[in-house]
TrEMBL record:
Alphabetized UniProt keyword annotations: Protein biosynthesis, RNA-binding, rRNA-binding, Stress response, tRNA-binding
Subunit structure as annotated in this protein's UniProt entry: Associates with stalled 50S ribosomal subunits. Binds to RqcH, 23S rRNA and the P-site tRNA. Does not require RqcH for association with 50S subunits.
A GO molecular-function descriptor: tRNA binding
Protein role: Key component of the ribosome quality control system (RQC), a ribosome-associated complex that mediates the extraction of incompletely synthesized nascent chains from stalled ribosomes and their subsequent degradation. RqcH recruits Ala-charged tRNA, and with RqcP directs the elongation of stalled nascent chains on 50S ribosomal subunits, leading to non-templated C-terminal alanine extensions (Ala tail). The Ala tail promotes nascent chain degradation. RqcP is associated with the translocation-like movement of the peptidyl-tRNA from the A-site into the P-site.
Species of origin: Alkalibaculum bacchi
Similarity remark: Belongs to the RqcP family.
GO biological process: one example: rescue of stalled ribosome
Top-level taxon of origin: Bacteria
Protein name from the UniProt record: RQC P-site tRNA stabilizing factor
RNA-binding S4 domain ranges (all copies): 1-64
Length: 77
């Protein structure tokens, strides 16, 4: 699954275009490397998101195409 789509589906970032802009700005890393929006994710990847002064670190636990709001937090830990 693409990084920008994962961020939107998991509701870590509200919109896919915002996720793409964050990737293009170098504010998102996957496994310690700056990632592009089209980076393919695998279960177990570590994502680091820098939004302003806040940094979010998550580990991918599931790659789901269609997710309800209640299940979105099960995609990462």
């Amino acid at each position: 699954m693409r990084l920008d789509k994962f961020l939107k589906n998991s509701r870590l970032i509200k919109r896919r275009t915002v996720a793409k802009d964050a990737c293009d700005g170098g504010r998102i890393q996957v496994n310690g490397q700056v990632a592009k929006a089209g980076t393919q994710l695998k279960v177990g990847d570590q994502i680091s998101i820098q939004l302003g002064e806040k940094e979010i670190k998550v580990k991918v636990t599931a790659l789901l195409e269609h997710v309800t709001k209640d299940d979105a937090d099960k995609m990462y830990e």
